User: Fold EF-hand domain-containing protein from Arion vulgaris.
Amino acid sequence: MAAATVVHNVENNIRTLAQTKRIRVDEFFQDYDKLRSGYISVPQFFRCLWQTLSLKLNAEEEQALCIKYGLQDQGNINYKQFCNVIDVNFDPNNVYIPPVNQKQEPLEYLGTIRTKRPLTVDSEARLVEILRHLQQYYKIRGISLRTQYKDFDKHHKGVVSESQFYRNFLGPANTNEEDVKTLVDKYGDPDQPGLVNYLNLHNDIQAIYNFV
Assistant:
């Protein structure tokens, strides 16, 4: 794989992790940069990624980042330049590309994407009611859907199998089997048949009053 493609993929993954965890990575790199020079050593750079984001890169990915951001003769990394790419949505000095076209959108939540499978009009309307009921039910009882499924999500991808979703689903007594199937249809991962994106469901339940 070309180095530019490798770097692009790594940057997208780091951007997703940083925004998911609500972390500004430059704050952690600065712990190694007492003089605020904007540079730290290569080992410090990758150690920081591991400590803050639990991200372990392979040799190809590390080399690609070093080529783009490193000072090869000094063995240092320009972490400031790296952080600008991760944290800033667009380059205000680039007059050739409109800011809206430069904007970097991370993959949603923990590296997953929202389902693209629309439901019927009636099912979408029912979905809103289901989400409302779940939000109220979980709030009153102090239940977190995310916590409910995280033990089954060993790799922290935001997805579980359909059987795990059905088996461990908690909802109001008036939530029937058809309602749960509606959730599975809506939040089934489009790229991984048989998996349900419970994290997107969790976030929609949290935000239900903001978009209905």
Summary: The chain has two domains: 3-102, 121-211. The CA atoms of residues 96 and 152 lie 47 Å apart. Strands lie at 39-41, 70-71, 76-78, 160-161, 195-196. The two ends are 43 Å apart (CA to CA).
